[in-house]
Amino acid sequence: MIERENLILPNGKGWITLASLIAEKKYSKLFILVDENTEILCLPIFYIKMEEMNEWKILKIRDGEKNKNIETCIELWQELLLEGADRHSLVINLGGGMISDLGGFIASTFKRGIDFVNIPTTLLGMVDASIGGKNGIDFKNAKNQVGTVNQPKLVVIEHSFLKTLPKEQLISGMAEMMKHSLISSKDSWNRFVTSDLNDKAIFENLIWESIEIKNKIVQRDPLEKGLRKTLNFGHTLGHAIESHCLDNPYREALLHGEAIAIGIILATFLSTELLGFPQNELLEVYNTIESYFPKQKFSKNEISNIIKLLSYDKKNIGGKVLFVLLEEIGKPKTDCFVSDSLIFNAFEFYEKS
Description:
It is found in: Cytoplasm. Its cofactor is Co(2+); Zn(2+); NAD(+). The protein is α/β, with parallel strands linked by helices. It contains 14 helices and ten strands. The protein folds into two domains: 158 residues, Rossmann fold; 174 residues, Up-down Bundle (Dehydroquinate synthase-like, alpha domain), CATH 1.20.1090.10.
């Protein structure tokens, strides 16, 4: 179990630690950031776990990635000011990846930084977004362009929140679990592929394995100078696809995990073409992902737009778009250049396989 300086704690132990943190720090104001869904589904659970031991002020925003923007930030900063928040206040982010991204950014910038705690309520939030200290918002139709690197005081992992999720949200989080396994080891990937995910105990063990994979990488490279870049596997094209669908009035927005799942397939194909990643394992990755995620279709014009959006990727250096690819499962390679023509080939493989 993870018990380090930035604590990531499970269920009962997490709630006890949170209560102790609040008592020890004697925060002047306590805020909970929720969206329209977590206010209804998760806030009552929070109150039960914390036994309504404190006076909480609720910060409520509209749900969805489209609201992870500067306008929402301004609304929240104004509300914090009106409610008398100061540098000794605490913000608790109760929600999925959008809430932890935006809430961490709000807290990190308000009065040059106040404490915050992440309590992820989605699978994606538990295994990825709430861990590692990356906070931020989207800007000009591009993902996470403005943000901070600032660690939460605590991350509480409460498995019972998973019962509040619709099936597609649960599956969305599995894309990040697949990514962690692929960059970690063949043993980790094989465990994911062969495990009975309907078995609650097995699934919870896989969740913790995924959390530990990410946390170990973050601990070794908190500022993403090298190793942490590997966590971007599948995200270069995945983020561009997500942004394209979010901004396209003729398409339905994709969940983050749905876009990342496509990005993983594309990146694995590129790995086969450029680094000799085994063809049979490419097909295994493709078939595993396709068994959970419905296939999407993209026109040539859409693919061209997705390629244009790559210019906003945070890993770019000197105008070059750089990918994380795999030499083999468990052996990622960073800073790989990929031509536009090869990206078109990757989409062709994805759509025709």
